[in-house]
Design brief:
Elements (H helix, E strand, L loop, with lengths): L6 E9 L9 E6 L2 H12 L3 E6 L17 E12 L5 E17 L6 E8 L9 H17 L17 H12 L3 H9 L3 H23 L1
Helix pairs in contact: 2-5, 3-5
Amino acid sequence: MPSPTPALILPIFPLPDVAFFPHTLLPLHVFEARYRAMVMDALARDRRLAVVRLRPGYETTYAGKPAVHAVAGAGEIVSWERLATGRYNILLKGDCRVRLASEKPSDTLYRLVTAHRLEDVPPATDVAPVVGRIRGACGRLLRALDRPADLLDTALAEGQPPGAIADRIASAVIPDADLRQELLETLDVADRLDRLSRALDQLVNELLRGRG
């Protein structure tokens, strides 16, 4: 059996309807006092934090410790701007998926967790055909939306791992927050690609039906 990955200690930034994928960039405007403190502390340490999606019903306990999903995206603050108001504009670069194991007692305003890095399960078969279908569906989607044909070229570029393509397209294109979270939690790359391909086809078909 593979040895378990070492535990990570990460501050978490819980947000509604956000799935933070590896291989993506996430701009955030940070205005709450507890998360301004989190960013300041992270910048003084290793610049790392996890973005995790809040579970439904979070509104009633938002000021405390509302329930969050078990799988999150971890990444690094790669650029930041501190505004005169004390707020921050930051840009996160996604590094990996993590599974939150437990919450640590802390005297900070924000929450700290113990988490374990999650690795992709490589495809057991050739996934080039499904990647080709994803490229085709993205082309149809951009045409249906009257967007530039090259808008997703970077996300779909040759030479990158298939899992990275799935993550980048899911982040950029999929509107349904529940599906994005499901794709974030899907470690099997072949399964992730297949689910993404079917979702893209459905999205294009819905757009075309709406125009009809």
